[in-house]
């Protein structure tokens, strides 16, 4: 049983006598873990988050952080002890990136030079080049701005990070990168992170635990993501988790046992007699053996773009997607250097899925 | 031209007085308008009352104000203080609305971010709201600058030293050259003041001209 860091006790928030935005919420958030609040709009997930640092005051009930009742703490000091990342990066446009990151240490009275030095280190921690430190936020891409937002939240090394839909305004590719980056950071920093999103996929990727909120501010289910996908507590959770939950659930099973087959590789999409001529799909690779795309059995179609790549250690979901998204039906597996390691077949991935399921039934 | 060269010292002298009478009310106007606008932002009723009341101030004829003020302020009619007070009233009339627009122009997400990071209200206002509202505030200041420089000349009718005296004396002596020099001098003054304000704004808001093109240097 993990140690509790943030505890909600019977917390209700009502706006001007209307329906409760958050209704008698009681939950305990684990220390050093990522807890995701997920739900449709109007479910009270953001309100709940904002009550932790008193951006919103509860109508009744108490919230404690590390055993201390937040309503007893001076609001400004409480907020400085928690990193906050919001949807729009919330970076100050009139301050350089470094000065933005240094904000909370400066508020805490750290001298400018020391705060900037720390900010420069954090720039590196979130994977941004040092040259960006002198730029203004408007000179950064959306993804870079969100990274700066995370760096700013980490600047005073707070034990708690509150993240309010931080990645929902960036494109899917960048979002995927930012999610992986957050997981990497969390492995090093082990902060208590409360993360709000409306995206169940994001919730299951990031969350050690996921709290599903229903409209009206009621907690519908609070469990590990794997359990929420496998055993939704009620119809609301089942419908919110959605139609693809069976497929998504595959993301919790490693595909280490999947078989890799050799594949015919060519250096150019233009087939010659020396290549054996047309007749089967061949993988086009560069001089180092990294996949570029496919050469079709039909002549003259040129390079056909490949599907998603399967890396060692990936999940069954990735394995199945690699096979299904490939034009040849063969999922391309690559090694750590990005070189082709072999191909996998959808039918074999499905067989492995079935095997995994049976194993689970035998050892519940 | 000959008259101007012969009297340039006099003209520059008047221009200097003119400038002081125009700039002081801008400064005082700002010092009054910024807190007033911030106060008016509390709720919409207060806001419309303040905006309407201050806008009405601008409809008071300037000559009337120059004549009434001495009896209110217990000053002599020739006291330049009357002009400074009168023009401060006009500056407030224009600047309260400009300051309200300026504070409105600050993205509310940024205020929320500042609060979430642990800014206290006063520090947030000075370090976040105020600098971010400068571009809109300066647009208002430029209007006040032109308005003040033009209004100061009216005070010449009362005999208070400024470039407007070139009009009164030129008219009395039926000497058109002096009037033309006065007009040109006031125009030049207005243009110079505007340029100074633009320059000042550029110095204070280097961030607003930063290229919005995302820069390279790292992924994502």
Give your account of this protein's structure.
With 364 residues, chain A is α/β, with parallel strands linked by helices. Chain A has helices at 45-52, 75-80, 97-101, 103-107, 112-125, 142-154, 172-189, 200-206, 225-230, 235-241, 245-249, 316-325, 346-362, and strands at 4-14, 20-30, 34-38, 60-65, 68-69, 82-85, 160-164, 192-197, 209-214, 218-223, 265-266, 282-285, 291-295, 303-304, 309-311, 330-334, 340-345. The longest helix of chain A is centred in the middle third of the chain and has 18 residues, at 172-189. The radius of gyration of chain A is 24 Å and the shape is globular. The mean pLDDT of chain A is 88. With 220 residues, chain B is mostly helical. Chain B is 76% helix and 0% strand. Chain B is built from nine helices and no strands. Chain B has helices spanning 2-6, 8-40, 44-57, 62-73, 80-104, 108-117, 121-152, 165-172, 176-204. Chain B is globular and about 65 Å long. The termini of chain B are far apart. The relative contact order of chain B is 0.13. Mean pLDDT of chain B is 89; it is low at 214-220. Classes of the chains: A alpha/beta (364), B mainly alpha (220). The interface between A and B is medium-sized, with 39 and 29 residues. Chain B: It is a multi-pass membrane protein. Chain B: One of its GO terms (cellular component) is plasma membrane. Chain B: Residues 15-197 form the ABC transmembrane type-1 domain.
């Amino acid at each position: 049983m993990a140690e509790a860091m943030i505890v909600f006790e019977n917390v209700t928030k009502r706006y001007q006598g209307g329906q409760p935005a958050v209704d008698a919420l009681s939950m305990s958030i684990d220390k050093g873990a990522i807890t995701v609040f997920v739900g449709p709009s109007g479910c009270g997930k953001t309100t709940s988050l904002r009550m932790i640092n008193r951006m919103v005051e509860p109508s009744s009930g108490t919230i404690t952080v590390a055993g201390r009742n937040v309503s007893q703490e001076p609001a400004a000091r409480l907020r400085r002890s928690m990193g906050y990342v919001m949807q729009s990066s919330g970076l100050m446009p009139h301050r350089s990136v470094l000065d933005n990151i240094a904000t909370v240490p400066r508020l805490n009275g750290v001298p400018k030079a020391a705060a900037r030095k720390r900010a420069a280190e954090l720039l590196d921690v979130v994977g941004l080049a040092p040259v960006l430190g002198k730029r203004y936020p408007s000179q950064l891409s959306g993804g870079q701005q969100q990274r700066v937002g995370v760096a700013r939240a980490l600047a005073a090394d707070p034990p708690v990070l509150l993240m309010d839909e931080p990645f929902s305004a960036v494109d899917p590719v960048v979002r995927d990168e930012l999610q992986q980056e957050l997981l990497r950071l969390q492995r090093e920093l082990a902060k208590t992170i409360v993360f709000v999103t409306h995206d169940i996929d994001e919730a299951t990727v990031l969350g050690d635990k996921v709290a599903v909120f229903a409209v009206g501010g009621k907690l519908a289910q609070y469990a590990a993501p794997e359990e929420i996908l496998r055993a939704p507590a009620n119809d609301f959770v089942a419908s919110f988790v959605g139609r693809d939950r069976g497929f998504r659930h595959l993301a919790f099973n490693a595909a280490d046992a999947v078989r890799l087959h050799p594949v015919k590789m060519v250096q150019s999409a233009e087939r010659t007699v020396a290549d054996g001529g047309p007749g089967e799909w061949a993988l086009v690779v560069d001089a180092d053996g990294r996949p570029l795309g496919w050469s079709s059995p039909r002549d003259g179609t040129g390079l056909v773009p490949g599907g998603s790549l399967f890396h060692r250690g990936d999940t069954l979901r990735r394995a199945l997607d690699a096979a299904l998204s490939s034009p040849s039906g063969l999922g391309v597996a690559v090694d750590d250097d990005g070189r082709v390691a072999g191909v996998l077949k959808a039918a074999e991935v499905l067989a492995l899925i079935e095997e995994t399921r049976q194993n689970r039934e035998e050892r519940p | 031209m000959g008259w101007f060269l012969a009297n340039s010292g006099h003209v520059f002298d008047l221009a200097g007085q003119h400038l002081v009478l125009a700039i002081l009310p801008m400064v005082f106007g700002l010092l009054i308008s910024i807190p007033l606008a911030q106060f008016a932002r509390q709720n919409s009723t207060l806001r419309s009352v303040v905006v309407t009341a201050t806008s009405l101030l601008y409809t008071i004829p300037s000559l009337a104000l120059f004549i009434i003020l001495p009896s209110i302020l217990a000053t002599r009619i020739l006291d330049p203080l009357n002009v400074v007070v009168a023009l401060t009233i006009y500056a407030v009339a224009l600047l309260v609305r400009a300051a309200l627009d300026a504070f409105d122009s600050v993205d509310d997400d940024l205020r929320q971010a500042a609060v979430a990071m642990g800014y206290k209200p006063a520090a947030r206002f000075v370090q976040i709201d105020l600098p971010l509202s400068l571009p809109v505030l300066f647009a208002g200041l430029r209007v006040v600058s032109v308005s003040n420089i033009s209004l100061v000349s009216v005070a010449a009718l009362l005999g208070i030293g400024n470039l407007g005296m070139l009009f009164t004396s030129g008219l009395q002596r039926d000497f058109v050259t002096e009037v033309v020099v006065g007009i040109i001098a006031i125009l030049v003054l207005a243009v110079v003041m505007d340029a100074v304000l633009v320059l000042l704004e550029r110095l204070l808001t280097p961030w607003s001209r930063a290229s919005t093109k995302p820069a390279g240097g790292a992924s994502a």
